[in-house]
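Contributing new complexes? Match this layout with 2-oxoglutaric acid.
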Amino acid sequence: MSSENTMEHQQLTPTYTHVPRLEAGSQASLDHLKSEGYVVIANALTPAEAQHSLDLTWDYLEQLGTGIDRTDTSTWGDDRWPVVTSGGIVPALGIGHSSAQWFVRSIPSIKKAFSAIWDDDDLLVSFDGMALWRPTAIDPKWETTRGGSWMHVDQHPITRPGFHCVQGAVSLLPSSPSTGGNILIPGSHKWFADIPELYGERLGRLPESLDHFRFPADDPRLQTTPPIMCHLEVGDMMLWDSRTVHCSSPGIEPATATELAQPSLTRAASLVCMMPKSKASDEVLAQRRAAIKTQTSTTNWSDRFINTDSYTEMQQAENSDRFRLPPAPQLSDYQMDLVG
Ligand SMILES: O=C(O)CCC(=O)C(=O)O
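Output block (do not edit by hand):
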């Protein structure tokens, strides 16, 4: 790592912060999201629902057929683990239609939180993946991407000006300073409109259809407004405006004795995003319905169809045909409404 990068990472070390945990759909949650660019929704899932989602997540990992065993950390190596992108996210290989993801999306308080944001009940859900982090105390190579190198906004600053999307991550495990997690800059959604003027050249290299802009880690505002890593209880849902500068980062403290004694995933976060159906064209709706049969996962956007199996990381992965897809989901009427 160059000394410049080290500086960058030092400056961006997040502060582990206890923020208000607010009720799904409450006015307080909407106000917090609007003023801060993020909000933590308390107990979107009960602890029992979170545990069930975690069990289903392990079912997904084990049925990939590469020999992963939830009880044996020696089977969690890269040779068996599904392909990941930045931030330890498993974005594809059927995870977007796993029982785990469909279970989480179908919990009523998830939709309640998004319906209040949009003031609309007729919503579509993303076919997103999950952030699944393995314990670095067992293998330091499992450390996920550090915050300083991939702070970003998930919206094109020119082609999608203004408010467009709120993204979510539901925590299936408790967080602590040693687990790491989502990090973000409070209030940075208000910086979004300045990006074209401040970073025009960098932006010029971004394809117009790409809703992902890496935010410069040397932006002077980061000196006075550093990132926070919010404390999350099991089942809490972190929501952030796609214009908010964010990413995820590993723990800022070593694993505790308890964590070391019982090695398990350090983070399991279900990515979930809902947007009004009225924003999707008939063509996108047809692609979404077809995606159920092909078990195609997507990004957070449901007004466009973006297949994450086509990500470069997925295309370049060796032997990716060794992974078995999960069984096609059998969806209820409630879930089919979320498909569109
Ligand atoms: O894992 C997280 O909490 C953040 C993931 C992220 O940066 C994204 O989905 O855009």
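Reviewers usually confirm one structural detail per submission. For this one: Residues 87, 131, 154, 167, 169, 182, 246-248, 269, 271 surround 2-oxoglutaric acid (CB under 6 Å).
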